[in-house]
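Reposting from the mailing list since nobody answered there.

I have sequence plus structure tokens for a pair of proteins and want to know whether others read the tokens the same way I do. The first protein:
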Amino acid sequence: MSPVPEQPKPTRLRPLWLALGFVLTGLGFLGLILPGFPGTVWFILAAAAFAKGDPKWEAWLLSRPVVGQMISDYRAGRGMPLRAKWIACICIVVAVAFSLGRIPVLAGQVVWVLVGLAGVWFIALRTPTKR
């Protein structure tokens, strides 16, 4: 039997953290079914929001079969499987390439490419590879 998490002290921000957690969880589940839309990052952010809003919802999210393992691996510093890193980097490159033409201003295009490069850099070089 798992221990019951402590209830957080009531704050005015608690409902906002909970709402953010639910929105991020929804985006995460969309990422599980939509190709090219990563879900892991949304679940990690949702767990962080739930941790500040209500630990019961955080525990629920961590108990999900696939999702809970991804969040636990990230929190423990175990990183991502190599295949997932490749898929994430390719998705970023494809998303940036397809959306670049829709940005009418050159400065916006440059910023968008830099954001994409930062994402690839973080995943490829800063995120540990899980063996």
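The second protein, same order (residues first, tokens after):
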Amino acid sequence: MSQNEIVVGVDIGTTSTKTAAFDENGNIFAQSSCEYPLYSDIPTRAEQNTEEIYQAVVQTLSEVVKTVTTNSGHVVAISFSSAMHSLIALDKNGSPITRSITWADQRASSEADELKHTVTGQGIYRRTGTPIHPMSPLVKLMWFKENDTNTYQKATKWIGIKEYIFYRFFGEFIVDYSIASATGLFNLETLSWDNKALSLAGIETSQLSEPVATTHIIKGLNKDIAKQIGIPEDLPFCVGASDGVLANLGVGALAPGSVACSIGTSGAVRTVVNEPTTDPKGRLFCYALTEKQWVVGGPINNGGVAFRWVRDQIFPDLQEQSGDPYDALTAMAKEIHPGADGLLFLPYLTGERAPLWNADTKGVFFGLTLNHDRRHMIRAVMEGVMFQMHAVVSALQEIGVDPHEFRVTGGFTKSPLWRQIMADIFEKDILVPASPQGSCLGAALLAMKALGMINDFSTVEKKVEIGDIHHPKEEAVNIYQELKPIFLNLAEKLTPDFKALSLIQKNITT
């Protein structure tokens, strides 16, 4: 591949679409992003407008392609990353009759609770690798079947947001193995839709997209869209994979014991294995990267969203000051000792996924005294997110993963303090790749492999430049070792109270 041949990666995220162009060495040639809102008309709902996301994809692609061509680059392929677990109902004309229902939507909590502890639910988890939780499209379909029969009966297709984009672009319904394996409807062993899961949801295979490999190439872009973006109709598009597994690829976390951690709005901990692997306790997911590589790990609901809550609800006065509010928050947190002088925060502001998988959990400050002030609360929130991330690491260790390094991406990497807190809680070195666009790069690398530009992913680790490394500090490590078991015990002990409080809150808001 010559110097100016460029591969573009598009990452359709929860709060924005990011598009980046890369050369053969993984260097960013151009990038663009476009934000869009998350709609929550009812407290349990978390939806997005499909047209807003479609326009964001077209806009960012157009901007990146224009920058590439202006600078004598040549786009040779486009590949896609996407958030998992979205669900859209289409009518017989292929038009959406729902918004895109995101992973954060909790309308199907009761369906998940009922299924989770049954033999049927446990069997579905073992075969599909998707934990039984309201995020799961399977459980969302069960909700529609029981609670919105009008939509359920009108829907001729049930698809995710990336499938919708490809349908608009090419007029075909295809889904990569990676996104499919996050639906709760896809059998990891057979790489096909799971008949028992489909029966439970009450749908037919014909109502779903055709599963294809993550390196699947499609051509024949709609001519009007091709003209709008500024690319030829026969440009190769790679279907790509989910943002989670592609973040591992994009940061070079492919070797045994190399773990990728990302914290954006939410967070996740993931590592690559060579065969489908599930957790006997049902705490971890298992999703496809390729036909021969799988990613096992766990997501947390509350990452950057918890820090944003601190900014907006505890420190609204910072909005009136000049400078970045997050820099001010971090500076105040830095004034407080590790452990926040014994103040803990359970960061369950939007329920929790791994390793608890309990949508009823709530945020909790534990240990408040007269000596604590707002600075302690900031520090406790930052530490609470990391304690929760480490709980996922502990679950991975229980199933045989032996982490030796952690490679990190996401918005939290902008904060040296937060990265150091991670090193001290994880008790391992934290490696920060120089490029922040892990999922975009991962998508681009899939396209490079699909088109024969690279033979395999063995050289990816060398392509990923490490910008910074944080080493654990003994004094902080000793403090966190005392606090970690208290943190883990709290969530378990409060489980029945979380449930009772959820019922009260539900009654208040309805």
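Reply #1 (J.P.):
I read it the same way you do. The radius of gyration is 22 Å.
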